Structure formats: structure tokens, C-alpha cells
Amino acid sequence: MTSPRTATDRIVTLDVVRGVAVMGILFVNILSFALPDVARLSPYAWGMTGPADLCAYFATMIAFEGKMRGLFSFLFGASLLLVVDRAEAAGADPVAIHYRRMAWLFVLGLAHATLLWSGDILMHYALVGSVAYGFRHSSVRRMIACGIALAAVEWLLLGAIALSFVAMQGADTPAAAQGLREFENGFGIPAPAILARELALFDGGYAGILHHNLSELPTTLYNTFFIGFETLAYMLFGMAALRSGMLSDAWSRARLWRWAVVGITIGIIAYAALSAWMLARGIDARSVIIAAFALPPPLRAAMIPGYAALIVLAARRGPAVATRFAAVGRMALSNYLATTIVMCFLFYGWGLGQFGIWSRATLYLPVLAMCALMLVWSRWWLARYRYGPFEWLWRSLARGRFQPMRVEPTCS
Questions:
Q1: What is the DSSP annotation of 42-61?
Q2: Angle of helix 319-330 relative to helix 332-347, nearest 10 degrees?
């Protein structure tokens, strides 16, 4: 069994789950790096060449879409609480430490979003994490109750969008027709001119992409409100998981199995039903909006703790493998940003210019290669250095001084 803590008092199981999450996020983000934006939810918009692509679409939807982002939010909440607890135990000011960390994380995210990729999530986490701090002294029961309420709010918001689409389909007005065209551009098959503009943008030079990223900043910040309720819910669930002992490896094997089996089974059965309905409708815009966009939030809320429980169980059975995943998790920020650099270079015009060329299924070849690279380089790096390069930068900025970087050799 993997020891829950190391000599430096890190919770290894937490690092393992974070490592799985940061690799799993790439299975979804790859679609935004390599294909027109609408193709992430609408498979026939771009990148469909055969049955393998359709299988890849549904496999991603069922196993990864929303779940990996949610799992990472889950771990962010737990880590937030751990940092605050350690600050209080050391007699430091937890408020100052937390908000300095969030402020500099926002700055790093801002640089990431403008210079590289508009799909950044770091600014979002910094803003939502600032709110999550207010729940640090809540009971486990209250964290869970508030998380459920917040997830329900998110479900209502997404449901309202789906209902507006259904209402427009039943209306016969110019405004409804215009609204349906906009929905089709975002959830169905966009107008050829829209696809052509996006392909030209990302196949072009860096200046055009930089201008696009800057113009997208208001939308990126708006998403903090739009998906912030769900993100905060998952952060609270992660805080509750830490407080309850789930992520510190204190739960019994039987309890972990119950959570894993129930949460994942509920999600898979429900997603399978939604997938069958989408196929029956030909994966049109209506089915995408309802089944891939509006209905999944409660399913994700069930699956994310189930995934976490299953990963904790797997870490107990394979300590050697768990050590590698834990190294990836310890360098989650560096691995997340390194992934952006590598994938932007591969797909954007300022690099190898592969945007819009690969089919959906073949995109998972560079995903698997990148995951393998993370497993190798993270452990190699941490054998020589205390932190990942961007973790070191974040830590140094938040503390106002350069942190020691190299691992001191042990004396025999």
C-alpha cells in the first residue's frame, strides 16, 4: 500500500489523483488545440472520417469530458485546504498566503491565456479558489451540502440554455431563426465561413493568434461566472474529501469500493443512455445541447468522487506505478503548461501547422505520447529538483523570494 505521506508531509494519494487528472484533461483539451472549437461537442462539425472517430467521440464524452476538469477542481480544493492548514500550523497568516498564491496564479494564467492558448483554466481557478477559501472552516456535511446546491445552480443554467433552444425550434419568427443559426454554429455544423476563418487563424502566424487570444480574454473571464458554480462545487467536494480522510488514504477499502462502484456505474449507465439517444437523432444540434451539454452536470458530480476513490484504490495496489503518477501530480502546473507549449507548437501555424488536419481518433496518439513523457520527465526532474519549474516560479512569486530549487544530496 502507498504510504499516504512522505517525509516532507506530502499526501501521496492526493498527488496521484492530481497526476491522473492533469493527464486526463489532455484527452479533452486536445480537441481545442487541434480542431475548430465547435468540434469538441459536435463530432460532425470537423474531424469525423469513420467509425473510429465516432467511438473516440463517445469514449471521450463518457470517460473524460467534464470529469477530468472536475477532478482537477476537486484536487485544487483539497490542496487549497492543505496549504491553509499548514500555514496556520506554522503560525503564518493563512489569508495572506492564500490570496498571494491566488493572485500570482491569476497572473500566470493571464500570461498563459494571452501568449499561448485562450482555453486557460488557471485564471478561473484563481478567482473561484478565492471564494472557496471562505468555506475552509465548514464541516464536511456543510461543504457537501453547499457543493450540491452549487452544482444544481449550474445544472439550471445549462438547462435554461437547452430550453431556450427547444423554444426557438417551436417558434416561427426571424429572431428565433437567427437564434437557431447561432446554436447550430455552436453545437451543430457551423457555417463554412466560420470554419474557414478559424482554420485560417490557427494555420496562420503568431501575431494573429496573439490578437485572437487578447480578444477572447473577456469571454474567458465571463466563463468564471458561467461555469464557476460547478467549479466551486467540485472544490468543496475536494475539501470535504480531504477533511473526511478519503484523500489522505484513511478510508477503508470497502468504503472506497462503494464510492467507486456506485459513482462510476451511475455515470456510465446514464451516459450510455444519452449516447444511444444522440445516435438515434444523428447527433444533431438538439441532441448535443441536451445530452452532451445540459444534462451531464449531475452525472459528473457522481463520477468524480467515484474516479477519485478508484484511483486511491489503484495507488494502494501498485506503489511503483503510483510513485510515477504522484510525480506528475507534484508537477501538475508545469505539466499543464508544458502540454500547452507542446500542443500549440504541434498544431498552430507558428509551429508545425497541423491544425484541422488530424482526424478525431488519431489525435489521441500525441495525447498518449505526451502522457508517457509526463510520466518519465516528472520523476526524473523531481529526483534532482524540489519543485517543477513553474511550481518553483509560483512559489517564489507568492513568497516574495527565490525558493531553494536543487535537491540536497543525502549524506551516507
A1: -GGGS---SHHHHHHHHHHH
A2: 80
- Report helix angle 122-132 to 228-244, nearest 10: 60
> Residue 141, exposed/middle/buried by CB under 10 A (0-12, 13-18, 19+)?
exposed
pLDDT tens readout for residues 70-122: 999 999 999 999 999 999 999 999 999 999 999 999 999 999 999 999 999 99
Residue with cell 497572473: 107
In 3-state terms, what secondary structure has residue 115?
helix
Three cell numbers at 29?
A: 483539451
Q: For residues 161 and 294, is the Cβ–Cβ distance under 8 A?
A: yes
H helix and E strand count, the chain: 17, 0
SS3 379: helix
Do 289 and 161 touch, CB atoms closer than 8 A? yes
Q: Is the pLDDT of residue 6 over 60?
A: no
**DSSP string over 72-94:** HHHHHHHHHHHHHHHHHHTT--H
User: Position 131: which residue type?
Assistant: V
Question: At 112, which amino acid appears?
Answer: H
Closest by Cα among 82, 74, 120, 117 to 101? 82
Mean pLDDT of 38-63: 94
**384-403 core/surface letters (b: 16 or more CB in 10 A; e: else):** ebbbbebbbbbbbbbeeeee
Q: Please name the residue ranges forming H helices in 172-227.
A: 174-187, 192-203, 206-226
Q: What nine digits make up the cell of 260?
A: 467507486
CA-CA distance, 370 to 368, in Å (whole number)? 5
Handedness of CA 9, 376, 350, 213 (dihedral sign): negative
pLDDT value at position 226? 84
Q: Would you say how long the chain is, in residues? A: 412
Tell me the three cell numbers of residue 247: 484523500
Q: If DSSP states are collapsed to H, E and C, what string results for 14-37? A: HHHHHHHHHHHHHHHHHHHHHCCH
Q: Is 106 left (phi over 0), alpha (psi -120 to 50) or beta?
A: alpha
Maximum Cα–Cα distance for the chain, whole Å?
81
Tell me, what's the pLDDT at 3? 40
Joined together, the cell numbers standing for residue 137 give 472552516
Which helix (H) or strand (E) segment holds residue 129: the answer is helix 122-132
R_g over Cα of the chain? 21
pLDDT at 376: 97
Cβ(198)–Cβ(216) under 8 Å?
A: no
Residue 12 near residue 80, CB atoms below 8 Å = no
